[in-house]
Amino acid sequence: MNAWDIVKGFLKPFIPAKALRLKRSVGIVRSLYKKFDPADYVSTQEDMNRMALIRRTYKKIAVLQMSCRNIGGMGLMYQWLCEHRASDTLYLFYREHFDHSKKIPNAFLEEIICRDLVDMEENLPFWLRVLKMCFWKVESLDFGDAYRSGIDISRQFYAGKGAYRYDTDSRQTGHFSFTEQEIREGDIILEKLKIESGGYVCLFARDAAYYNQFYDDQFLDKAKWANELMVRYCDSDIESFQSAAAYLHSSGMRCVRMGEAVSSRGTLAHIVDYTNERRSAFGDVYVFSHAKFFLGDPSGIFVFPLLAKKPMAFTNVSSFFLQGTHRRKAR
Length: 331
What we know:
Largest sheet: 5 strands, parallel
Low-confidence stretches: 324-331
Mean pLDDT: 83
Shape: elongated
Structural class: alpha/beta
CATH class of the largest domain: Alpha Beta
Distance between the termini: 13 Å
InterPro entries: Glycosyl_04372
Helix content: 40-55%
CATH architecture of the largest domain: 3-Layer(aba) Sandwich
Strand content: 5-15%
Number of domains: 2
């Protein structure tokens, strides 16, 4: 820590909160202009009228950095927003990818997010001008907020203030809503899998297949040590769920294997193999949304039953999720 940092730390308690917030707002706008470097923009009269309406309507403008590096970050950010949204705030978002890859973990979840929020990347010059005109209203939300919320949810499933609350009616789909056409298409998927809404359990065993497929060779070579660690850690076997599937089957419940990419293939007793037979981005959301509950490893895929507000039971849970609270370090 240099001398200037020490001076700033000493003076900070004496600076009015409004001044600090204004400083942060200006910094956010500047960083976005620097990040996107928009071309010359000349606003039309229609644009000006729209900007004036936004300025009058919203007390705040929140800019979300939507993590699209993996499904966990993407889903947790959206879930956090669904739970904490304010009616007087306009929510804009832009995508954060790995430098080497622009892959979207689930295209249908992205479509749902675009229905609900403003995708500022569709018209960057316009939205950057809005932020500049209303700079004092601007604040930012990053993945850290959603991540902390997700960890707390994982630790507070059954009791306590702020605990995860699921829908007891399996016909409810939580934060997900579907068009009539999507319902028809989703019901066809369930019919082909020979399962009925509310009459099945989603199972998930995470192995290394997804990790190795999603993160290409460029990334894996740069972090070989992490890759080797993940391969050892993410080595759950779907066959270890066989006894649970047999029990659920005897109780009248079907079991459906979930996951985008898996190592083990083949017929499994009492388990419908959706992953290798019918899997799609839309199907992931729809099948999870109509399940009775989720049973599986704690991986990013749990955001689907989380958003659908389904009961969840985790297997192979590390102590990282068991106790305590993930708090922001003091600044």
